[in-house]
# Entry
Amino acid sequence: MLLLGGTSEIALATARRLIVRGARTVWLAGRPSAALDRAARGLAALGADVRTVAFDALGPASHEAVLGQVFARGPIDLVLLAFGVLGDQAYDEREPVGAVRVVQTNYTGAVSAGLVSGAALQAQGHGRLVVLSSVAGVRARRRDFLYGSSKAGLDTFAQGLGDALYGTGAAVMVVRPGFVRTAATAGRAAPRLATTPEAVATAIELGLRRGSEAVWVPGSLRPVGAALRLLPRVLYRRLPL
# Structure
């Protein structure tokens, strides 16, 4: 498997589950760092052959070469696109360069890496691309519409890529978690339906077994998302979201 975002807590929780179930080779793609090295050691301790590759979501010009060297080393059964940033809504509204960084990381970088990975999976004739989207992309919320808009774009892109790959042997699964308790969200008020990296990993594994195209975490968010899409805007604005 190839984890794009090799220090992502969700990606690493997923890797741990799949290693226990027989996965043996794991590529961690991310910026070289002590955190990436620790992640590699942690997975290696479970018995996996762990390799790292320098990857920068903000450097799309390098994605084809960087990811190409991974696929050149052997078939990849699973690509998990798990990188992203939350940003700081209040700051980013005042300083648009911050907003651009959020969008370039969560959407532009993901489009580039997703297309490269999708083409490679199609060329080998099999494999799944799992894309971490978010419930925040269902409908813009005042408090995080910059992050939400980037995830909305990513979600639409992933669905379209899945349609483009249909029948090729490769497939895309979109994962839409709600609030996930991670180091990145520490200090933020957690809603009632908040989840954990381990719960998302469990849902990803189950979705892979079922051949799902979309997974909501927790599953109860699926009808909530549908309702939010249909709610009149004048009422939606009054919700404490």
User: Anything to note?
Assistant: The chain is about 50% helix and 15% strand. The chain has one domain: 2-236.
